[in-house]
Amino acid sequence: xxxxxxxxxxxxxxxxxxxxxxxxxxxxxxxxxxxxxxxxxxxxxxxxxxxxxxxxxxxxxxxxxxxxxxxxxxxxxxxxxxxxxxxxxxxxxxxxxxxxxxxxxxxxxxxxxxxxxxxxxxxxxxxxxxxxxxxxxxxxxxxxxxxxxxxxxxxxxxxxxxxxxxxxxxxxxxxxxxxxxxxxxxxxxxxxxxxxxxxxxxxxxxxxxxxxxxxxxxxxxxxxxxxxxxxxxxxxxxxxxxxxxxxxxxxxxxxxxxxxxxxxxxxxxxxxxxxxxxxxxxxxxxxxxxxxxxxxxxxxxx
Length: 302
Ligand code: EPU
What we know:
This protein has 302 residues and is α+β, with helices and mostly antiparallel strands. The chain is built from eight helices and 19 strands. Helix 1 (2-11) packs parallel to helix 2. The radius of gyration is 20 Å and the shape is globular. The model has no long low-confidence stretch (mean pLDDT 95).
């Protein structure tokens, strides 16, 4: 199978009608920033994924792999890259103890399917519009849990080679997951649970989050990592007086200061300015350097 893939990769026939030019990314990022990708592709399988990479390689264009777009800041200007979305990688298969899921499957969809089948564990992800691939890349976490509590193995492409990697061979940590290659699918081990109990837990988590997080406004979740376990970046920003602080259309949420929300017409520049103000004010008041959780597209492309 690998040989076949490589053969295709090398001799690829450029039938690439799935690669589009000048595509708006506004509905592909949870902050709803208007940015135009020079090229954009939604490959339907690994062959097309390889074709897309080859297409970019041949032209010297950088590639940005996009999950749910819930932790990324695109530039206001054009994004000089090929953005590869995993939205067509959306199959999943239940096993006796969990699920094997393609990288592009969205967490809210997965959560619904799993709870319907009596698999619990991912309730902490409710309200987060990420894909499972993005979640594994970032080691997404909330409510004291993280995705690596459930990951058993991942299936990836590293330097053109398919690999199956066990959890214990990945150096994951707080908001740091697997970043070396391209995540294709993920095997999660879950708990068999009563369906009603799972739904009750989802409701409980959602109720808690809604009270303290602006889930009904465009945002990218928490902008900064917590500087230490038990020290909330949100609390520091709040105590530095930043709740409700606004630049242009972007604002530190009045519910949770570590969320920057788009009030309707925020630009990437507004958001970056707020971020710098946040870092500055927190440093001034607490001598703590906040580190960003939110990824800037330009930095990923470097
Ligand atoms: N707090 C404030 N003001 C604020 C925000 C928080 O005083 O503006 C206080 C709260 O009242 C609470 C404490 O800070 O006493 C902790 O707040 P919270 O429970 O909201 O937790 P957090 O540490 O601020 C973390 C994660 C969130 C996750 C929540 C809930 C990080 C950077 N943040 O926030 O993750 O949803 O716990 O478990 O690790 C994300 O990563 O995108 C994210 C939102």
